[in-house]
Amino acid sequence: MSNRMPLNTNGHDLLPKRADDVIVFAEPDEEPFVAGVHWRCATCDERPVYVLRDGAVQVHDPCPYPTGITTEITLDVPSGKLIVTDDLRDVYDVDIDAGASYNTALGKAQVVKAMADLGCAYGPVGNSCPGLYRDGENSYIIASPVGDDDDVPSLPEEDRLAWICTDLWAYSIADFEDWKAKGGTPEDKRLGHHTVVDVAPGTYKFTLHVGERGFDNYAPETVIFAHIERIAPAPTT
């Protein structure tokens, strides 16, 4: 037996396209089967358990991240030099399959934190080719601007410190000297396009927004993937 019913997702991200109702196949004493939804929540990676209640189909347990996930990490930059590119896996690499699916917000957040533990500020940004832009004193953004009718970008070109070629669909940023000390070679042709940016030495907080509910990598306006700010100066010796 199939019916079209309203869907209460209980905070889960399950619908590829927003809809008022879904097709539900239900047999007595069996869990309903819901067509046209994600097999697992695109945020928390949990498989939903559906129940029929009050004329609607509902997910039994709530999503632990109903508004998505904002990921914060810190990066120590004692040298005052950042290497900025898409791929630093020659030095900093983790198993992206070790936790939740990398296709979910939780899986991406887990990889971002694992990379930070190794000394790399990493963030998935799709095939967006963003830039690192100055956004004030000791603060920066990773963003993709849009152009107006005269192709003037929405962010000033003089504020762009690095362009990131996203062959890996991500940005990767590390302290330049830490990267070299761990085996990085600036002349390595496998590194591809990279930029070394001078910043004030210290500890920087990266706030990544791509896991937030409704975030669109390819929105028609300026897309800010991450905010970066220095939260502490480098220790004095």
Question: Can you describe this structure?
Answer:
This protein is mostly beta strands. It is built from 2 helices and 15 strands. It has helices at residues 105-118, 176-181, and strands spanning 2-8, 21-25, 33-35, 50-53, 56-59, 71-77, 81-85, 120-124, 131-134, 139-144, 160-163, 170-175, 195-198, 202-208, 223-233. The strands form 3 sheets. It has a 6-stranded antiparallel beta sheet with strand order 6-14-15-10-9-11. A 5-stranded mixed beta sheet has the order 3-2-1-5-4, with no helix packed on it. It has a 4-stranded antiparallel beta sheet with strand order 8-12-7-13. β2 and β3 form a beta hairpin. The termini are far apart.
Question: What is the CA-CA span between the terminal residues?
Answer: 74 Å
The fraction of residues in strands falls at: 25-35%
**Structural category:** mainly beta
Q: What order do the helices and strands follow?
A: EEEEEEEHEEEEEHEEE
If strands are numbered along the chain, what order do they take across the biggest sheet?
A: 6-14-15-10-9-11
Based on Cα principal axes, name the global outline. elongated
Overall average residue pLDDT: 92
Using only C-alpha atoms, the radius of gyration works out to 21 Å
Helix content: under 10%
